[in-house]
Amino acid sequence: MSEVLGWIGWVLILYCMCLGITDVFLRYVLNAPSMWIGTSIQAALVLIACVGGAYALNHGAFVKLDLFYDGASPRNKAILDLMTAPFTLLFLGVLIWKGIDAALLSIKLNQVTPTGVPLPIYPIKSAIPIAAAAVLLVVLKQLAIDIRHLVTGQAPAPVAEDRSP
Description:
With about 160 residues, this protein is mostly helical. About 75% of the residues lie in helices and about 0% in strands. It has 5 helices and no strands. Residues about 160-165 have low confidence and may be disordered.
């Protein structure tokens, strides 16, 4: 699932690049700015953050405090991961809980952007708790790997170096 989210993020990045260049061309060369491109790029950037979280976490690409973590043994890394897991689970739980509330309210109110071309906001707000749930699944997978490592002593498989989707 995180690989599919990585590909979605890749497509969204291409979308932002192509439409960003188009917007600059329309605005500065043709003197005809778009009324919707900037808003749609902002929505795409929110989606990139949503889908990128699960992909990055699954590939070990999240920034960690390398001062303590990088030189640690696999056992100590697992211990450090287990120490930070409650904070991660709490954050994701609140993000899912409040994200669902915000998405349902947005759907109920049929929210749109307050711009010249009203684009719907509720799909973006609905993606946030869904993406948080995907990140939660990756966190639970890593938590299980860390617990197995501490219990059995079996080192986790190395993370693939290829980080492209």
